[in-house]
Design brief:
flat; about 600 residues; alpha/beta; 5-stranded mixed β-sheet; about 20% strand
Length: about 600
């Protein structure tokens, strides 16, 4: 078709409202819910302008970009409302349209009002793929959108050069990492480093990160391990007319980061505050705050159970103004309190509470957590004091962490084992040790040897943290994994360790030159100084399930695990050995008569 034919075809599609949206879900894989949908526009099936690349290319050539953008937004919002969809609607916007003087300002707001969709539900996606000619005008346009109540996302982050600049200056609500950095991320340390950097930046300025273009379970699993929870891609749902509104259980984030092994619970940072009943008048709450200038929060109870909270600043705001006192003084506390505060049991660990706060989108560093005991009010803990306590513990643990892998070292390992023995817990310990690592180091050098050690650390974390509590690095090429379990699942522990052995044997060849792979090993000098052939690196695993009644401390468990590891090494090659003794052999003391 000629340019003029294409132009007429596009005008016809716009005038006759023949454009329609497909919706692709954006999923929170931690909470297991769809948080919104991105609208992707299409022309009629089989039409020369069916797909967006052609549509927007013709619009650009025909100077109809503004008209096409408005038609796309209208179609998306209308269908979103017609289907009674919930969550966010992500709308792609060409940034250069925003600076076009002929583009009618306020049109998206008018459309949302006309079709009955709250602007807070709409996320304007500004893509980095378009060459941005005037960043200052673009910034003004984005600020204008935000003032109207719309949310902002930077799309395809990493595809161009302007995204990071806009991000740093505008603090968008979302950034979407370009597909290039997601594809095969499990095989690229550079891509992992990029994503990790984006996550760190996002955390500092409270921007949510969405990984888009996810197509394989390996990619999704790696993103989970990095801490990504908002995901989009064919694996989670293709663009469809009928939108996906549920998350498949197999796609949920089951990755559990390595626990720090903190023994402290939230009770260690709890303070006692006065409480108020939900059937008291609001004026009584005001009087409490007036009498106590240091009081920032009042937990609200009903029959000793917490049902809400009243915050000083919110209450003072209610009572301010000409009619504030008259309107609120006689209202019951139940009618003005904030419902569903963050609440945890007094025995919840600091790390579990920290994770809860991280996942709670409304949590603020200056807020408080309600602490209960047997479902009754116990006290409050400020998020600030919780974070301070965790920071202290992290600094202490960092002093003893392995500098190469950053995994907890001997001090933390011993502390966790002693705690389990003290609590009479059922647990297993797997001791991992590499075979022939010294000759490998001698031939390939310590830097390459370090890469192997870091790879083993990642392998253990990726493979075992889903079913264990703790991964530690004793030092050198020795690692320990501590599994929590109930009676009868030591077999599961062995299968999990065997899986690590199989993955190790499959992938270790990546650290060898082709000639050594063909030979099946390397020639090096042994400990006695004689030239010797050493087979490829392998891994020995000794597994023990200590009996807390028979082991006095971590020393006993260490002896037991070391014996099991030695047995595993006797088999040669990679081997997993399950020891059935539950306590180390005791030395017999022989007395003699003089």
């Amino acid at each position: 078709m000629s340019t003029s034919d294409n132009r007429r075809a596009l005008i016809s599609l716009i005038d006759n409202q023949q454009l329609y949206p497909l919706f692709q879900p954006v999923v929170d894989t931690t909470r297991g819910c769809v948080i919104g949908h991105e609208s992707l526009i299409r022309g009629p099936k089989g039409h020369v302008l069916e797909f967006p690349d052609k549509l927007f290319a013709v619009a650009h050539e025909s100077d109809l970009l503004s008209e096409l953008e408005l038609a796309c937004r209208y179609a998306a919002i209308k269908e979103f409302q017609r289907r009674d969809m919930t969550g966010k609607l992500f709308l792609n916007v060409n940034p250069n349209v925003l600076k076009d003087d002929s583009h009618p300002h306020g049109s998206t707001l008018r459309l949302s009002q006309q079709l009955g969709l709250d602007p807070h539900q709409i996320v304007i996606e500004i893509s980095e793929r378009y060459p941005i000619e005037d960043t200052e005008n673009l910034k003004e346009a984005i600020i204008h959108y935000r003032q109207l109540g719309f949310m902002i996302a930077i799309d395809d982050l990493g595809a161009g050069y302007s995204g990071l600049k806009l991000w740093s200056e505008l603090h968008p609500d979302y950034v979407k990492i370009d597909r290039y950095f997601i594809q095969d991320i499990h095989e690229s340390s550079v891509k992992r480093e990029f994503v990790q950097s984006i996550l760190s930046l996002a955390k500092n300025i409270r921007t949510k990160v969405i990984a888009e273009g996810i197509e394989t379970s390996d990619e999704l699993e790696q993103l989970h391990a990095l801490g990504i929870k908002h995901c989009q891609g064919y694996l989670l749902g293709r663009p469809e007319k009928l939108p996906v509104d549920k998350v498949q259980p197999s796609l949920l984030n089951t990755y559990k980061p390595v626990k720090a092994g903190y023994n402290e619970t939230i009770a260690s940072v709890v303070n006692s505050l006065e409480i108020i009943a939900d059937d008291e008048p609001a004026l009584e709450a005001l009087n409490r705050f007036t009498k106590n200038a240091a009081l920032s929060l009042l937990p609200v109870t009903r029959h000793e159970q917490v049902v809400g909270v009243i915050r000083r600043e919110k209450l003072l705001e209610r009572f301010s103004g000409s009619y504030g006192h008259a309107l609120n003084a006689n209202k019951l506390v139940a009618h003005i309190m904030e419902k569903e505060p963050i609440a945890v049991d007094w025995q919840a660990s600091l790390e579990d509470v920290s994770q809860l706060i991280t996942e709670h989108e409304e949590a603020d560093v200056y807020q408080h957590i309600i602490v209960t005991r047997n479902s009754r009010y116990y006290g409050v803990a400020s998020i600030k004091s919780l974070l301070r306590k965790i920071t202290e513990l992290k600094i202490n643990d960092a002093r003893h962490a392995n500098p190469l892998t950053q995994l907890p070292g001997n001090v933390a390992i011993n502390r966790v084992i002693n705690e389990k023995l003290r609590n009479q817990s059922r647990f297993s310990v797997a001791y991992f040790d590499l075979n022939h690592f010294k000759p490998y180091n001698d031939i390939y050098g310590y830097e390459q040897g370090d890469q192997v050690i870091k790879w083993v650390a990642q392998l253990l974390q990726k493979s075992l943290t889903g079913c264990s509590n703790f991964v530690g690095h004793i030092g050198g090429d020795d690692f320990v994994v501590i599994f929590e379990h109930s009676a009868g699942n030591s077999e599961i522990v062995e299968k999990s360790c065997q899986k690590v052995v199989e993955l190790f044997d499959r992938d270790v060849i990546q650290f060898y030159q082709e000639e050594h792979i063909e030979l099946g090993g390397i020639k090096a000098v042994n400990r006695e100084g004689h030239p010797t052939f050493f087979s490829l690196l392998s891994i020995a695993v000794g597994i023990v399930s200590p009996d807390a009644r028979l082991c006095d401390s971590h020393h006993d468990v260490a002896l037991l695990a070391t014996e099991a590891k030695k047995e595993a090494k006797r088999f040669g090659g990679s081997h997993c050995y399950q020891c059935h003794r539950q306590a180390p052999r005791r030395l017999k003391l022989v007395s003699s008569r003089s």
